[in-house]
Amino acid sequence: MAKLTDISWEDFQALPLESKRPYLERPEGDGAPYHTLFAQQFDKPLLERLTSLANRIRFMSKTKEGALFLKSLLPHKRAMLYFSQPSSRTFLSHLAACQILGLTTGSVRDSTTSSEFKGESKEDSIRTFSSYFDMIIMRTTDKGLAEKMSWELSNSSRPIPILNAGSGKDQHPTQALLDIYTLIRSFENNGGLKDRTITFCGDLMRGRTVRSLSYLLTNFENIRQIFVAPPQLQVPDDVIEILKAHNVEYMISDNLKEATAISDAVYMTRIQDEWDESKGESKKIDVSNFKFGAEELKLLPKTGVIMHPLPRRDEIATCCDHDPRAMYWRQMRNGMWIRSALIAMTFGFEKQIMCFGA
């Protein structure tokens, strides 16, 4: 079995993402992730396992008996939520997921309150956290930091799992998991997640949620992907190369209305101006035709859904909020369930949860 202790950082870093998966799995050999870093770690069988586990946790949480059983699973474990990049939903969703499973949590959400303010490196901060906690859930602007620290900790005297809650502009695997979970739930009584057209709209160049979800969708049968954005914000080449490699049909467009009319799901994103290289750079881009409102709502098929990773600005009009096809509030709540499932699986409690009450 491949282990991070058997490979140098340079050799591991050079591997294609899909080839890194075996090194990131639990040592028990059950195919579950130990470190969760990339969407490329999840194939359809593993996604189906996670979905079933999330459903089980969701139903168990509705009863006192089930909720107390879940809370009894991990009270002996501690999780550090290290969010050096601002966040509310992702932070609270992971916090709630930990609470469901009984984990004690600590958090750093502002580097000015940590020793980083004194000049300590992020790498040293994370090594410090590993002395006190049994899992690190981290969100950072630094591309590749979660990956580097997963190798570092695996090769340390205290190896613990790292869960990537967003790294730079490259990956956001747990957001992609909750997005897939939402799509599966949305179509479970209507043919399932296959033979569908999914439209992504907005800032696709810098949207890490789009990169991760686009990949996960390649695991499902006959999923066509449409990318709608201004030229400056259109989907990057690396995403297209992945779709080509998996023989996925895709289309590049600048017409949201046309795409909406033929879509089963429209995934809206905000402008990611926090990544601007110069102040006000994004404001120069005309995005007036890339917003979802009353007209688009009329064009969306009756069985279609509207999604958004949130936070939103004005890219989805509030008039859409009470339409039954608006899934972004359910999507947000789904994050708590799928992240609970992922954490439970990481610590090896999948079977106990699935067998509860049997």
Question: What do you see in this structure?
Answer:
This protein has helices at 9-14, 17-20, 44-60, 64-71, 89-100, 122-132, 145-154, 173-187, 208-217, 237-245, 256-261, 294-299, 328-346, 350-354; strands at 78-83, 104-108, 135-140, 162-167, 196-201, 223-228, 250-253, 265-268, 305-307. With 358 residues, the protein is α/β, with parallel strands linked by helices. It folds into two domains: 4-171 and 334-344, Aspartate/ornithine carbamoyltransferase (Rossmann fold, 3-Layer(aba) Sandwich); 173-272 and 286-333, Rossmann fold (3-Layer(aba) Sandwich). The strands form two sheets. The chain has a five-stranded parallel beta sheet. The chain is globular and about 55 Å long.
Provide the fold topology:
Layout: H1 9-14, H2 17-20, H3 44-60, H4 64-71, E1 78-83, H5 89-100, E2 104-108, H6 122-132, E3 135-140, H7 145-154, E4 162-167, H8 173-187, E5 196-201, H9 208-217, E6 223-228, H10 237-245, E7 250-253, H11 256-261, E8 265-268, H12 294-299, E9 305-307, H13 328-346, H14 350-354
Parallel strand pairs: 1-2, 1-3, 3-4, 5-6, 5-8, 6-7, 8-9
Radius of gyration: 20 Å
Major sheet summary line: 5 strands, parallel
Mean pLDDT: 91
In the CATH scheme, what's the topology name of the largest domain?
A: Rossmann fold
Q: What share of residues is helical? A: 25-40%
Strand-residue fraction? 5-15%
Structural class call reads: alpha/beta
Distance between the termini: 32 Å
Shape: globular
Low-confidence stretches: none
- How many domains? 2
